[in-house]
Design brief:
The chain is of the alpha+beta class and about 280 residues long. Helix content is about 25%, strand content about 25%. The chain starts with a helix and ends with a helix.
Length: about 280
């Protein structure tokens, strides 16, 4: 039982780096998305729960979507909304435009359900509010961010999405597709996609760097150490730095394995020196 527990803990430790510690998709740059308290964009056509209002004297009507990344929408939307929409009706009177807004509708509750792909990532907002007729299930919304190297977002005072997305509606689900450079490999335009395929990229891990430094370091240590000991008048195997320690190293490693095995099996440990004494 203890062995199984240790193995489970070890697997959790090894897999931990694969799990995002903070809100966001793996290996993507969404810093600018999170910096803005909310984003919005206007959609010119009625779609799904977005019904254009045709009031007397109005000039046009549009749908406005509000959403936030890694926090509920702080303004306008119903409580705990990840995304909501509203219909805006504009009136022009004496060269002055007046805007009238309908009730805000929650089309997706706040969520951190990110899914990351090579050149895209998605965020699903589930279980929005039920809209008439109430027999219909709640609406959900999926935001899709696709790689486009030239689609660089930046925080702005007006909070407007810089690139017009594509909006579709099927039964009870909105799908909104954005172009976003942060969805590219390495989180900012380094990978392939519609912005251009730049070929595979690879980065060295910490283990690889340590191995690269270890072997040249060992070689340099032996060569320099041998030259120093040679200058001290040493000959034969005495030229090798720490020759006695290196000759004992295999036995010390064997003792380490024996100690570990003895702890796991609750048996008595026997060292290499004891084995030699028995022989």
């Amino acid at each position: 039982m203890a062995v199984v527990l240790h193995v489970s803990l070890l697997l959790m430790f090894l897999l931990h780096p694969c799990i995002s510690a903070n809100c966001g998709p793996l290996n993507k740059d969404i810093k600018v998305l999170k910096e803005q308290d909310y984003w919005y964009f206007e959609h010119p056509k009625p779609i799904g729960s977005c019904k254009h209002l045709k009031l007397e004297g109005s000039s046009n009507s549009t749908c406005i979507f509000y959403f936030s990344i890694c926090k509920p929408v702080p303004r306008y939307c119903p409580d705990n909304s990840g995304i909501c929409l509203v219909t805006k009706v504009s009136f022009v009177k004496e060269n002055t435009t007046l805007d009238l807004y309908s009730e805000f509708i929650n089309i997706g509750s706040y969520s951190e359900d990110f899914k990351s792909e090579a050149d895209s990532f998605t965020l699903l907002f589930p279980l929005g509010e039920v809209v008439p007729p109430e027999k219909e299930p709640p609406i959900t919304t999926e935001l899709q961010f696709q790689c486009n190297d030239s689609a660089t977002w930046s925080s702005s005072s007006d909070r407007k999405v810089p690139f017009q997305p594509k909006v579709t509606f099927s039964e009870t689900k909105y799908t909104i597709v954005f172009d976003y450079s942060g969805a590219c490999k390495k989180g900012g335009g380094g990978g392939g996609g519609r912005g251009g395929d730049k070929g595979p990229t690879a980065t060295l891990g910490v283990g690889s760097i340590l191995l690269i430094l270890f072997f040249p370091g060992m070689f340099l240590y032996c060569v320099v150490g041998a030259l120093i000991r040679k200058g001290q008048g040493k000959t034969g195997k005495d030229v090798i730095p720490h020759a006695q320690f290196l000759s004992d190293l295999p036995g010390l490693i064997a003792d380490g394995f024996s100690f570990t095995l003895a702890k796991i099996t609750c048996s008595q440990m026997s060292t290499t020196e004891q084995k030699y004494d028995q022989m």
